[in-house]
Each structure stands twice: as C-alpha cells, then as structure tokens.
Amino acid sequence: MEQRRALIAGNWKMNGVSADGLSLAEGLAACARRASDLPSDAAAEIPPDIAMALPCDVLVCPPFTLIDRVAKAVAGTRIAVGGQDCHAKVSGAHTGDISAEMLKDIGCGYVIVGHSERRADHGETDAVVKAKAEAGLRAGLVAIICVGETEAERDAGQTEAVVARQVSGSFAAGGTPETVVIAYEPVWAIGTGRTASPEEAQAVHARIRAELVGLIGADAAGKMRILYGGSVKPSNAAELLRQPDIDGALVGGASLKVEDFWGIVRATE
Ligand code: 13P
Predict the structure, then answer these.
(1) Where do the structural domains in the chain lie, given as residue ranges?
(2) Among candidates 147, 151, 239, which has minimal Cα distance to 184?
(3) Residue with CA at minimum distance from ligand 1 atom 5
(4) For the chain, does the N or the C end have fewer beta carbons within 10 angstroms?
(5) Could you say which of 87, 185, 205, 211 is catalytic?
(6) What is the pLDDT of residues 119-159, one digit of tens each?
(7) Which of 196, 199, 105, 81 is nearest to 148 (CA)?
C-alpha cells in the first residue's frame, strides 16, 4: 500500500442523538490528540503539519442532525467529517433532502453515496448514485462510492460481474484518486457478523481496480483507494487491511464505540 494512504471511515448510519453522538466524537477526538501528541485542550494551538501523525486518514459520518456539532467536537484534530448521502442538485424543491454544498458548508470533507441500504431502501440506481457522486465532486467533497453484491448474487457466481457493473455505472465523471474512494461492501456481510474472508475480499478489490483501469487509466487506478466494509472489527481489521488491494475500511456497528473504532484505526499501523 506504499502509494495509498489507508482511510478508516465510520458510518454511524441512523444512530445517535446529541448525548451519545457527542460523547463518541469527543472520545475519538481525545484519541486523535493523544495519537498526534497534541495537548488535550481542544482550544490549544495545533501545529500545521500534524496530518501524518495519525496512522491513516480517519473519517466519521454521523447522521445529518449531528454533523455540525461533531465537526466542532473534532476540530483541530485530523479527523474528517462526512455525510451519509446527498442530493444530486445544488438546491431547490426537494423536501427532506440535503445537497452536497450544504454538507460542505457545515464542515464536511466527504460524502458517502450509493450505500446498499440507500440502494435498497430508496431504490437508488447506479445512475442516481453517479449523479450524487458528481454532486459531491462539484461541491469539493470526496465521494465514497459504495458497491456490493447480495447473497443471492454471490451464490449465483455473479459477484464480480455485479460489482464491476456498479463501479462503472456509479463512477463520477472526472473522478480522481484525490476525489473518489470506492467502498466494497458485500450486502450479506453488513451488520451480520459475517465477513468476506481476506482472500474473497481481495479478489473483488482486484476486480474493482481492474475496472478502474478501464475508467481512469492504470496510473490513477493504482492510486485510488478501495475500502472494504461489512462487519469489520478490531479483531479482523489487520488481516483484511494486509491484502494488497484493501486500502481501508468503511465501518458500521464498530464505529459506534470509541475503543472499537480506534482499534481499527490502530490496525493500520
Ligand atoms: P457493519 O460494519 O455494521 O457491518 O456495517 C458496514 C457498513 O454498512 C458500513 O457502511
């Protein structure tokens, strides 16, 4: 992974009201300050070159209602904040939706698009996901584009075909290694405690990278980060992250506990 810095991203999903969300954010901020040898005082002066003091890039994606306060709680650490979804348009008559520009405005650096729960619950197609990813880029966010097969598709031997189709159909035009991250999350591994074996995951990640070569060329594809997601925890993270094409993790359940999430961050060391 010499040319790709790992990214550990927490997707809090629809979890957290003020009290628990903020205590989670403050706990993570404390870990980041300790890891970076920073003063525990949030208001203290931060040296500008502290980015590499964490073993990897670290991101939390709280529910929309908490983003603003979580961003303030982690300010001054190198923890980035992102949204879990965005609308494709900048603004307008779209009741209940949030634009990528709005996320940027409250301190987000990233947006997750095309999570399988959104594809399933909201009928999001590859074309919709692509438009959302492009909205993220337009707003200056890094788009984390999620793909992954269902159990039935895996059983039918279609995993690589499904995932390759999702990657090419959802990829943001103009996406670069700096502006796009791919997340491979097998649907059957999400929230189930079942994880793809490191070898199974690696095979799909390699197939995704091959698809990216066709989309953006070998050099850019070699630099683009591909995260694994689906029941990642401190006890299985290191083994997954050792695979050559696994460049980080998108973490659901284990991102809701400071020790578990930071344990995964430390697994990149
Ligand atoms: P779990 O880690 O809870 O399986 O969720 C994975 C996921 O969907 C992250 O986006």
Answers:
(1) 51-267
(2) 147
(3) 252
(4) C
(5) 185
(6) 999 999 999 999 999 999 999 999 999 999 999 999 999 99
(7) 196
Task: Using the predicted structure, report yes or no on whether residue 107 has a pLDDT greater than 80.
Answer: yes
* Position in ligand 1 atom list of the atom nearest CA 192: 4
Tokens of 30: 């404390």
Architecture field, domain 51-267: Alpha-Beta Barrel (3.20)
| CA atoms of 8 and 58, how far apart (whole Å) | 5
Measuring from atom 9 of ligand 1, which residue has the nearest CA? 252
Q: pTM of this prediction? A: 0.95
How crowded is residue 121: how many other Cβ atoms within 10 Å of its Cβ? 9
For ligand 1, the distance from its centroid to the CA atom of residue 168, given in whole angstroms, is 22
> Element (H or E) spanning 214, and its range?
helix 198-216
Is residue 232 within 6 Å of ligand 1 at its C-beta?
A: yes
Give the tokens for residue 182.
């791919």
